[in-house]
Structure formats: C-alpha cells, structure tokens
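Aim 2 progress update. The chain analyzed this quarter is reproduced below.
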Amino acid sequence: MKIYTKTGDKGETSLIGGTRVKKSSLRIEAYGTIDELNSFIGVVRDQEVNQNRQELFSEIQDRLFTIGSTLATDPDKNVKMQTPDLYETDIKFLEEQMDLLDEKLPPLRHFILPGGHPAVSFCHVARSVCRRAERLVIALQEESEVENLVVKYLNRLSDFLFVLSRALGFELGVKEITWKPRM
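Predicted structure tokens:
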C-alpha cells in the first residue's frame, strides 16, 4: 500500500464514513490540531526526565488518537467502522495524575512564564496547542455534533500539562520563572 493516494490533491479529504470535505474545514482543522498536539506530547514524552512516565504518555497519546478518530468520523453517517470511545474515567485518570504531581510542588502563588529548561518549555508548547485544540473543538460543536466529553478531556489535559510543566521544573531543579508585570 502506498502512502500517497493523490485523492487530496484538489484540497479535499475523506472523513470516516466517506464524506468528502475541504481540508480547510473546521472539522479537519480540529483533528489536525489534535494530531499536532499528539506530536508535541511525543516530544514531551521523549525528554529524559520523563523516562518513568512512558505508560502515562501512552495512555494520553492513545486518548488523543481516540479523539482524532471521533472528530474524523462524519456524525451524519451510519459508519460501519467501529472507533474507540472516550470515558469519564479517562478524565479522572488525568485528575489523579495531577493530584499526585501537585502533592510534591510548592503552592502556586504567581503566574508562571514558560521556560527554564527545554523539557519545561516543550510541555508548555503542548499545553498551548491543547488549548487551541479545545477552542477548535468548541467551535466545531457550534456547527456539528461533538461529544462534550472531548472538550472536557482537552480542558483537563491542558491543566495536566501545566502541572506537569511545574513538576518537570521541580524535578530538574529549575527555578520557576514568575511573571512580574511592569507597572
């Protein structure tokens, strides 16, 4: 099987279910951003400081593929292909992971600027891409059916990535860069 099909050469692609849509559609933009987020999660996962978190990142990347497949499916078609589901327990999992990380961190008293170490910065990039994906999915909800659990998961994942960025800095002995507004 060749990776190139040439079916997208005119700016269209197929959703799961066969419907052809413009590559500029909000649905494609949303699941493309999920793909981008998953790529950045891979960068965060590959940081040496995260070697003991490989299973955690596998879970997250699997859920992002689940979300991508959900968004890539035409909600108006009766699709024969079964796609995986997202569950409330997936959100609970992120909350539990945040609680474990947060136990070891000093209280947050200031806004934090991204930076201090590449691992921390990559985590902040993933967090900001996650927020963009969340906004796109919310916009897509306004024109099409998208399960609210997707929005909830992305919201919680961005929170998790923020807490993880703080934990990475703490584990690496990096001082947090606090925002000191110019007055």
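The chain has a mean pLDDT of 93. The chain is about 55% helix and 5% strand. These observations will guide the mutagenesis experiments scheduled for the next reporting period.
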